[in-house]
């Protein structure tokens, strides 16, 4: 009888431990932040929103480099590279309001086949995702760069 009670006690403890571990694991999964995936339209609007501010910054930087050539660090060159890409897209898309309109303009420049339309949509979408991702990953450095040149 004593052996039966000790066996049942051990099985009970293992069962409770297993249930607690599973319950703890499930609560940890739900608490992890889920990164928001932006749509193509949101990425395009992000570029359109950031464009004027970047335009001011690039104008100030190019203005200051007339007489004295500013020495930028490597990280500042990376930031300027990202900002220049965003500005190029913004400059091309000033008169365009939506992502689908941008695709139409892009397809008019190409030969217009349906396969090319799908490919250009995929390429533009991937380019914008990468560009917005790069911008967001260096957002703090970019904001300090804006503050350095007094651009708001």
UniProtKB/TrEMBL annotation:
Residues 1-20 form the signal peptide. Keywords: Signal. It comes from the Bacteria. This is Lipoprotein. It comes from Mycoplasma putrefaciens (strain ATCC 15718 / NCTC 10155 / C30 KS-1 / KS-1).
